[in-house]
Design goal:
Low-confidence stretches: none
Shape: elongated
Radius of gyration: 21 Å
Order of helices and strands: HHHHHHEHEHEHE
Mean pLDDT: 92
Structural class: alpha+beta
CATH topology of the largest domain: Beta Polymerase, domain 2
Length: 189
């Protein structure tokens, strides 16, 4: 999965670039109209290609009715904007998913679990970009605990569409050193 530009990954071509530019604009100032030249520049789409895509967005109600060549006015209160914003920043959803899957797969919660790598940083642009789990097993971990972590890693990799790996540490201090300042803690929350 491309976490850097997820809308372009999900909607290839003009539509994805246009949606990305409009979501960015919605974030900054949804009430300010956009000229076609401004939108063309931010979406990297020629104005003639914009018209067909804008027509479709108008049919969905995401933009106000307009004539060909007129500025684009977002319907800022449209219900779809919130969902589109969520697609542009999946970081919190990744943390929640890892937490939920860990609780389901691991009979005993890890003493520490953190995430690092391009996926959690939001810079992953290719399926080979990695999400790394840094794990400190609980003191009372059973013999099959490592197998459960392997199953967890496999499932998360499948769900994200990216490579997921894990490293184990002896204690929280070692794990924090492995993850560095950018690591996102999952357990304990």
């Amino acid at each position: 999965m491309n976490f850097r530009t997820p809308l372009s990954a999900l909607f290839p071509g003009t539509s994805g670039r246009l949606l990305t530019a409009l979501v960015d604009h919605h974030t900054v100032d949804a009430d300010l109209p956009l000229t076609l030249n401004e939108l063309s520049k931010s979406a990297a789409v020629v104005p003639t290609q914009l018209e067909a895509a804008l027509f479709r967005l108008g049919l969905l109600g995401l933009i106000a009715p307009r004539r060909k060549g007129e500025a684009v006015q977002l319907v800022a209160s449209h219900i779809a904007w919130a969902a589109l914003h969520q697609l542009t920043d999946l970081r919190s959803r990744i943390v929640d998913t890892v937490r939920e899957r860990a609780q389901a797969h691991l009979r005993t919660a890890p003493d520490y679990l953190a995430l690092t790598g391009a996926v959690i940083e939001g810079t992953a642009a290719h399926p080979a970009d990695v999400l790394e789990l840094i794990v400190v097993p609980p003191a009372d971990a059973l013999d099959d605990w490592t197998d459960a972590v392997d199953a967890l890693v496999t499932e998360i990799s499948h769900d994200l569409g990216n490579v997921v790996v894990h490293r184990s540490a002896r204690d929280t201090q070692e794990a924090e050193a492995m993850g560095g300042a950018s690591a996102v803690r999952v357990f304990p929350s």
